[in-house]
Amino acid sequence: MALLKVFDPCAICLLCLVLSASELCNGGITGNFLRKEYSPDMPLDSDVFQVPPGYNAPQQVHITQGDTDGRGVIISWITPDEPGSDTVLYWSENSKNKNRAEGIFVRYKFFNYTSGYIHHCTIKNLEYNTKYMYEIGIGYTIRRFWFKTPPRTGPDVPYTFGLIGDLGQTHDSNVTLTHYESNPKKGKTVLFLGDLSYSNDYPFHDNTRWDTWGRFIERNAAYQPWIWTAGNHELDFAPQLEETTPFKPYMHRYYVPFASSHSTSPLWYSIKRGSAYLIVLSSYSAYGKSTPQYKWLRDELPKVDRSKTPWLIALMHCPIYTSNSHHFMEGETMRVVFESWFVKYKVDVVFSGHVHAYERSKRISNIAYNIVNGMCTPVDDQSAPVYITIGDGGNHDGPAIGMMEPQPNFSAYREASFGHGIFDIKNRTHAYFSWHRNQDGYAVEADSFWFHNSYWNPLGKSFVAQH
Ligand SMILES: [Fe+2]
User: Fold this and answer.
1) Residue 100's pLDDT band (boundaries 50, 70, 90)?
2) Locate the Calcineurin-like phosphoesterase domain: which residues (predicted)?
3) In this structure, is the dihedral angle defined by the CA atoms of residues 285, 289, 291 and 295, taken in order, positive or negative?
């Protein structure tokens, strides 16, 4: 009681304000870096949207993993004038013999828009840890690119992932991508957390903005895989335009290897890469009990062998823990359904986007709550994942600056600046995460965290999942 008399609430608030660089209340940090709120999309004649020269030249080239283990690559591109060739010629850096693979092409219409010829070609049985050259546009305008396959899957394989979410196509988006490319940590694969082009914000969901976005990211996505997660801006559900097939443009343009993980939908799937087991989930597909996604994840998690892939990582668009007022509680229903599994199977980290800010949680869970027992406050739980929201790619909606106050105990660091993340796996026990703010120098870490692997190197006491 005496302490309360000395430290009245006003005095405590004053103390918090005195901690000037960051607000340090309730154990978490709220970065006070302020940035402008709104950045428009880059104009159509921007150099980053330039159409490559040559008749029917392939454009919007991007690659993603094409199988479960990293020996396959899906190469996708669009030809604008006529179908052209579905062929990919590819060869390892030290070989003179070109291999040939045949793909397919698809098209779609969306209201008054008709897409170009969207090609997808999967090449398989590649050597690990090898640089490959590839050529597309055979017969007309040939374009050449390259990529490097990952090391063979194994428990102590170092590997560096980049994390980008909610990118859009503004000047800030361009800064984010440049910052990622220039980061000396050199991410080898992008884990993309949903919300790609934001074309649905245009009248009639102007799909030419899907095309500009594809040309914008080509400079990176043609050379390293981007692992795709679908967000709400991929839904493109527009009954007023008689467009009622959800995810139509996204699913025609961005193929993923869902069948190899026995998924029945491109919206949820898994891959292994290096020492990581990556599980992609869909916040905008059914996930309640007995739904296809629920059953798939229920059957998928027990398959993860931490002696081969120690790092278990889940990707989803909508965060299930956030202290931002934007999209607050939107992930609550998925938390109710999936959180106990994340704890039971010791998921190391859940990355999400959607909220246009950065936030890192402590290891917490809220699985004890059963509606009647009142235990609805998250508690420290070393078996629980760290939740990282990184929807700060820089789209035209601007940053989500409305934080809930006071900062809740589960929130370790939060800031409404644009940026990207790096998840740098060292071995089976340690990984280093860093968050890089766009306004800083390329090597600056605005926030960082050493991960101790939840299976091999847990810290502290663990709570066992209750159900
Ligand atoms: Fe979103």
Assistant:
1) very high
2) 160-358
3) positive
